[in-house]
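ok trying again, last paste got cut off:
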Amino acid sequence: MPCPFDRTDTIMKVMELTAFLILAYFVGLAVALRKRQRTVQGPWLFLLRAFFPNWQFFHGLGPAPRLWVRAHRTPDRWSSWQPVYPRLTRRAWHLLHNPSVSLALSHQNLVEHLATDVHDLTENADIRDCVSYQLVMRLARDAVQGGCWADTPMVQRPEGFAPEAFQFEIRLRHLGQDGDEQLLLSPVIALRP
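nice, full thing came through this time. structure:
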């Protein structure tokens, strides 16, 4: 009895649809860049940036943005500021398969996009309305609540520390200089139980 579901036909249709969507994506990106003078903006255009890393390092060396977080259980008991920056041990098999390193680097890419959006922010605009701010806020929340890159925790947490709120900031690290410049400081954000 023949199978009513032909996998080959379905796979071909999916491949055709994928090829069409990729072509439409690049055509839409080209039109958007031409109209907006090479700046990708807007909530729906931001989603297209997820396919590409932040290429600003080709324009020259500048300060590197870093995410820092702190948490508190009571208003008087804040943890120290800790960087959320991937420093993962690399292994030989990571040449073929390294999802934890890729995830950590994509998190740092989010921070770099937020720093770019802070610099490109128009007057009277609120950075909290930007998608990049919302994503970095979720990343900071995950780090404070014990998030990991594979076996490596994003930040060190004391045993039994259950935070009630957190705060994050973006600091710019200038090459060859001690100290960081504060670019963005979030308000205190409550964690929901």
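cool. The chain has a mean pLDDT of 79. The CA atoms of residues 32 and 96 lie 35 Å apart.
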